[in-house]
């Protein structure tokens, strides 16, 4: 197997080399008090913390708290403290979907906008602890709105702009938002996303919403409801540019972000202030080896946790210059990413394997016609990167010069957990490599028996984390019991990630994918139960079962088995109708790739659907279906094989 050793120059000048990594890792676990005292010094505290943490994953005294008696304000950390020396430094370089559109915003300008935005929110009655839902395109105002919430102590809940009005409404209702922030529209690949119209449709079912603040961006026509809707640009002029940041406890909530799990309803993952910001800033510093003056671009949308931690909070806390891109990788053509790299002289690029695979398919020429000489480091996130895509990223995009950091983490973890450090870790394509400081991974088998962790001995099992880390989520919003049940009840005393994982002889971790009913489609996490409940909500559908199957570009595709009601004759028209139905119920990211009309689903005698068999058939691997003798009616399987979709 190929190993790409740390380039000598990186080992020499990076923040940490291999020896430094090992030593810091040891200290993080053996001398946590001293270690975190140093690392939290990268944050400005209003009142310094004296209590490190009180963390237990056991049911009896379950709880997670870090730096609990410290106080701070997250927006002041991302803005105010940079003003004295770096006020004129560019904070955000924005590039629109249309390549002729660019904006540059300094830290001073960003600070003023955030203060004004915060004052507008206050004027609308928002206060500490309120939940505010954001449904925005990738524009600087998205960061402004997030930081304005943080400034006044309101909790933001960002909903990805690709979600449908139905999905948006569910998320507004779950956290009882009184305020929604949106834009007239967003642009993606030359097409308008009618955000305001979607909000109108959603809010019709949300009695809690009193006001909608609208950013004028795409210029499309929208209906403004008197008494409820206001333009940000009008309000902006009418408020003061000064706004004192609210003093927040380290454990006060910063944001909620909804994510799919193995049950139908998305969970509101809640992150707090002190520990989260420390983790976001610290991982951004070490993983990307961020230096003042670097131009840094994370291509994720702010609707996902990657956008929270690595477009907004981590980099801005570190005073970085961040590129923010509204569009998509293939518009106007397949060179777009690399044109942006050249135009803004990007040094660090962080993106998703799915985009790389899609671009790889179009051929090297689109990449090669750009210079990319400014690039120094590349990152990957969101799903396993297959070694072929890794090597292409390395050889074609990075010209064989740029280390690749393949970062494994989750919405729940707040920031990178298993990741190479560019000056320290020899790279194995496809492996997220080693645990970050403070992270204690453990592999267990299905029964929870810990697999031996010894040098030279490989193991494969379910990935758990045995100790808390500052960036860890604190609860499921409104349902603390569900938090415990979901993550800490499968294996007693451990956080269970839901991922399968192999550790090789050198101690490198290789994530093998989800072991629960969650699938990863183009780096987006989807609960199969969520898609199933959307399907069965259709009047003609009696039953549905959704599984993932390997997909060349998306990583995993969505394969839906559907049993229609008795009087319905399934046909092509119904297939199209159901695909459209799921798009409207959840959003385009949940579009099924295949719908397989099935007269019946394979079930055990107790009525449980045998998903293992459904996965095999969807994968087209019917040679090893395993034991089907426990099925109530084994002939169902033959029918499914004979009628496989796609
Ligand atoms: C799931 C989390 C990481 C933030 C964005 C996605 C998968 C994530 C990797 C990686 C292999 C990865 C896991 C994880 N995943 N990064 N580098 N290698 N798998 O956050 O939506 O919460 O999804 O994404 O399966 O559990 P998310």
Automatic annotation (TrEMBL):
<feature type="binding site">
    <location>
        <position position="538"/>
    </location>
    <ligand>
        <name>Mg(2+)</name>
    </ligand>
</feature>
<dbReference type="InterPro" id="IPR045851">
    <property type="entry name" value="AMP-bd_C_sf"/>
</dbReference>
<feature type="binding site">
    <location>
        <begin position="406"/>
        <end position="411"/>
    </location>
    <ligand>
        <name>ATP</name>
    </ligand>
</feature>
<dbReference type="Pfam" id="PF16177">
    <property type="entry name" value="ACAS_N"/>
</dbReference>
<dbReference type="InterPro" id="IPR020845">
    <property type="entry name" value="AMP-binding_CS"/>
</dbReference>
<keyword id="KW-0547">Nucleotide-binding</keyword>
<protein>
    <recommendedName>
        <fullName>Acetyl-coenzyme A synthetase</fullName>
        <ecNumber>6.2.1.1</ecNumber>
    </recommendedName>
</protein>
<keyword id="KW-0436">Ligase</keyword>
<feature type="binding site">
    <location>
        <position position="330"/>
    </location>
    <ligand>
        <name>CoA</name>
    </ligand>
</feature>
<feature type="binding site">
    <location>
        <position position="514"/>
    </location>
    <ligand>
        <name>ATP</name>
    </ligand>
</feature>
<dbReference type="InterPro" id="IPR025110">
    <property type="entry name" value="AMP-bd_C"/>
</dbReference>
<keyword id="KW-0479">Metal-binding</keyword>
<keyword id="KW-0007">Acetylation</keyword>
<dbReference type="InterPro" id="IPR011904">
    <property type="entry name" value="Ac_CoA_lig"/>
</dbReference>
<dbReference type="GO" id="GO:0003987">
    <property type="term" value="F:acetate-CoA ligase activity"/>
</dbReference>
<feature type="domain" description="AMP-binding enzyme C-terminal">
    <location>
        <begin position="530"/>
        <end position="608"/>
    </location>
</feature>
<keyword id="KW-0067">ATP-binding</keyword>
<dbReference type="InterPro" id="IPR032387">
    <property type="entry name" value="ACAS_N"/>
</dbReference>
<dbReference type="Pfam" id="PF13193">
    <property type="entry name" value="AMP-binding_C"/>
</dbReference>
<feature type="binding site">
    <location>
        <begin position="188"/>
        <end position="191"/>
    </location>
    <ligand>
        <name>CoA</name>
    </ligand>
</feature>
<feature type="modified residue" description="N6-acetyllysine">
    <location>
        <position position="608"/>
    </location>
</feature>
<feature type="binding site">
    <location>
        <position position="499"/>
    </location>
    <ligand>
        <name>ATP</name>
    </ligand>
</feature>
<comment type="function">
    <text>Catalyzes the conversion of acetate into acetyl-CoA (AcCoA), an essential intermediate at the junction of anabolic and catabolic pathways. AcsA undergoes a two-step reaction. In the first half reaction, AcsA combines acetate with ATP to form acetyl-adenylate (AcAMP) intermediate. In the second half reaction, it can then transfer the acetyl group from AcAMP to the sulfhydryl group of CoA, forming the product AcCoA.</text>
</comment>
<feature type="binding site">
    <location>
        <position position="525"/>
    </location>
    <ligand>
        <name>ATP</name>
    </ligand>
</feature>
<feature type="domain" description="AMP-dependent synthetase/ligase">
    <location>
        <begin position="80"/>
        <end position="468"/>
    </location>
</feature>
<comment type="similarity">
    <text>Belongs to the ATP-dependent AMP-binding enzyme family.</text>
</comment>
<feature type="domain" description="Acetyl-coenzyme A synthetase N-terminal">
    <location>
        <begin position="23"/>
        <end position="78"/>
    </location>
</feature>
<feature type="binding site">
    <location>
        <position position="522"/>
    </location>
    <ligand>
        <name>CoA</name>
    </ligand>
</feature>
<keyword id="KW-0460">Magnesium</keyword>
<feature type="binding site">
    <location>
        <position position="541"/>
    </location>
    <ligand>
        <name>Mg(2+)</name>
    </ligand>
</feature>
<dbReference type="InterPro" id="IPR000873">
    <property type="entry name" value="AMP-dep_synth/lig_dom"/>
</dbReference>
<dbReference type="InterPro" id="IPR042099">
    <property type="entry name" value="ANL_N_sf"/>
</dbReference>
<feature type="binding site">
    <location>
        <position position="306"/>
    </location>
    <ligand>
        <name>CoA</name>
    </ligand>
</feature>
<dbReference type="Pfam" id="PF00501">
    <property type="entry name" value="AMP-binding"/>
</dbReference>
<feature type="binding site">
    <location>
        <begin position="382"/>
        <end position="384"/>
    </location>
    <ligand>
        <name>ATP</name>
    </ligand>
</feature>
<feature type="binding site">
    <location>
        <position position="536"/>
    </location>
    <ligand>
        <name>Mg(2+)</name>
    </ligand>
</feature>
<feature type="binding site">
    <location>
        <position position="583"/>
    </location>
    <ligand>
        <name>CoA</name>
    </ligand>
</feature>
